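User: Please fill in residues for this 412-position structure.
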């Protein structure tokens, strides 16, 4: 969620040199990666649009833009969370020895606090599907991979995107009868403390199940291993993103038309949802019960399918490549985008405060008031972020999160 801006990374022991990635020179500046902050700011504002903006069903240009923000913003946020994990555990080379153990403990503390904060925000009972607890558990799930090189991480991300959605589908279908799932929930202390389905919700049944959101983080970890100061790397990142978007959304569009009765079965499962848009849009709805196997052909942002992960990862990579290019090559545009970048620098604070604001004022449904609400949220966040970051490097919650990890320094 936040970025570690420390620049020192201890050298790897000689015995480990062969299995670590080739070192790349660090950026000239030891400050924050402006392009990454810009992308994170876009992700936060995109989630604002998804939560308080007009309903995409309103149609027209506004509805189209609102639909683009749905799911894809949180996917970008997840990918950048993986990027942050690598920043904390060592970039371009992973920290080893005592420094590595300290970095791991820092990540464990951060993950635990995000889980607690996520459940606390969920307890506010807003209409926002709070993502922080899912992120916290996902951090713990992918942390053992932090020493892998970029190509290996990319391969793991691809394999998990291909396999885990099918595993999730089987687990969700088997949990519908309630036998084993009720037993797991009954024995889960987290479920009793939070009043939710606990770990089962975070892993399987929730809106952002770790099984299908971990691939985004792993992809972000792979990107963080690259030398993003190089124009050819950024270009390759953009091309990869475009190819994945075409493969995900285009593959879903083709599959839904080639597989007999697929669109009809998807429409029936979603109680009359718009199956014609199932290859890219959340307007398809969600299965009410007995999800058919044809659902695995859908690429709607929250469908938890392989096609969805591929498409959303592609969009996230393309947006990140664009933001990095703007930051490296377009100083005037970078200055104009400063308010969005500032939001990215205090992303955790901006996200948490918007959930509190939704709790206080509610979520609008009419297009006119919703547009006004979105404008107020956006202006409030950007102005506050600019004023804060003129004097401080981190947001208020980012400072607290950082301070909470200081005991990791005593790790031997």
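Assistant: Residues filled in for all 412 positions:
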């Amino acid at each position: 969620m936040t970025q570690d801006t420390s620049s020192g990374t201890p050298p790897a022991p000689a015995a480990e040199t062969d299995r670590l990635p080739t070192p790349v020179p660090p950026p000239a500046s030891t400050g924050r990666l402006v392009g990454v902050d810009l992308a994170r700011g876009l992700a936060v504002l995109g989630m604002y649009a998804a939560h308080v903006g007009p309903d995409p069903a309103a149609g027209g240009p506004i509805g189209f833009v609102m639909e683009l923000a749905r799911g894809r913003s949180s996917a970008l946020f997840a990918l950048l969370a993986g990027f942050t994990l690598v920043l904390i555990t060592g970039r371009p080379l992973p920290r080893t020895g005592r420094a590595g153990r300290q970095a791991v403990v820092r990540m464990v503390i951060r993950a635990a606090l995000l889980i607690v904060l996520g459940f606390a925000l969920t307890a506010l009972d807003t209409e926002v599907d709070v993502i922080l607890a899912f992120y916290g558990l996902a951090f713990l799930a992918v942390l053992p991979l932090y020493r892998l090189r970029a190509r290996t991480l990319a391969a793991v991300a691809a394999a998990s995107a291909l396999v885990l959605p099918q595993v999730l589908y089987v687990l969700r279908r088997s949990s519908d009868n309630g036998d084993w799932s009720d037993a797991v929930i009954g024995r889960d202390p987290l479920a009793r403390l939070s009043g939710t389905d606990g770990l089962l919700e975070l892993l399987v049944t929730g809106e952002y199940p770790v099984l299908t959101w971990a691939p985004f983080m792993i992809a972000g970890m792979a990107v963080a291993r690259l030398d993003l100061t190089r124009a050819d790397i950024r270009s390759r990142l953009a091309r990869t993103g475009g190819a994945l978007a075409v493969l995900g959304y285009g593959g879903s569009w083709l599959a839904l038309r080639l597989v007999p009765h697929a669109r009809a079965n998807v429409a029936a499962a979603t109680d009359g949802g718009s199956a014609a848009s199932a290859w890219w849009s959340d307007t398809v709805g969600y299965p009410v019960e007995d999800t058919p196997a044809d659902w695995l052909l859908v690429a709607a942002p929250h469908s938890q399918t392989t096609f969805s992960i591929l498409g959303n990862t592609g969009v996230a990579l393309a947006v990140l490549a664009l933001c990095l290019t703007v930051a490296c090559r377009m100083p005037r545009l970078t200055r104009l985008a400063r308010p969005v970048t500032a939001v990215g620098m205090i992303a955790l604070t901006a996200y948490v405060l918007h959930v509190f604001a939704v709790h206080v004022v509610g979520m609008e449904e009419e297009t006119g008031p919703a547009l006004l609400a979105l404008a107020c949220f956006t202006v409030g966040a950007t102005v506050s972020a600019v004023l804060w970051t003129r004097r401080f490097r981190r947001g208020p919650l980012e400072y607290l999160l950082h301070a909470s990890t200081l005991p990791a320094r005593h790790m031997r």
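For context: The chain is about 65% helix and 0% strand.
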